[in-house]
Amino acid sequence: MRQLLQAITVSAALLLLASTAGAQGAKPLKKCAVDAVVAGTVCMDTYEASVWRVSDPLVANKGLVKKIQAGKATVADLAAGGATQLGIGFTDDYAPCADSGQNCADDIYAVSLPGVTPSANLTWFQSQAACENARKRLPSNAEWQAAVAGTPDPGPDNGTTDCNTNSVFAATLTGSRSSCKSVRGAFDLVGNVFEWVADWVPRSTACGTWSAGVSPTGDYQCLAGAATTGEPGALLRGGRFAAGPMPVRSRSLATTSRPTRTTTSASVAPASCPVREDARPAACPHRLHGDGARAHGMTGLMSLAWLPRGAR
Question: In which domain, by residue range, is 172 found?
């Protein structure tokens, strides 16, 4: 049975290792496209991804796709091209792009935009496809962790500027919580919607809490047990809008799960189990929930941005 992932967003990331880039003649990463921020050796989406279906992407809307892939597309550009945003609220409208990631090529695109509802209710596989179409990818757990550093620990949620963890009980517009910003400039890495990361690990079977030295607020982490049979999981990070302090957890990669933020050197959400932890390191590398389904919460995307031309 397909269970709805009510609040998971995708974080996609194109890995840009300094050593690899240097070996390929690329200069050190100092600047990203306008939709992303520099975080270590990669460009991380500034905002949780919204996923858009673009009609006739190879001919009539070829120019729009180029803008998306260059990180320059705006809401006005998408509207002018007749693009449709998917995964709003509890809607699962990604077909014919399947849960398995099949039939998704040149169909759905992850876009980092301010002031929109982040897309959710998609699997890790769909998230990765949306990032790849945008020339991005899901970030690794470590890349996500580097990008979240400095984001305020959840604590109270005043409903206006604090991270969206326990006030309106719904996803808010990307970037609208002005104080929910990391040192590197990425918004909403705590709360709002869960985010997939690239890493896979065994599915979680139990939850615990971080020690006081790591998490004074007693955040959860659902990596206290690991399944020894069945499919693997992917890490979810960051928590969601109705969670307060949230866990890292791993969920199944099964076609019934869903994720979303990207990295380009791009942004899409984690897989196995970690929810978008509030700046706490994950004990395991994966961003899907632990139970292998679409889950109760929304899962979205964050992705990594573009590789310098010299590193391609």
Answer: 7-23+31-311
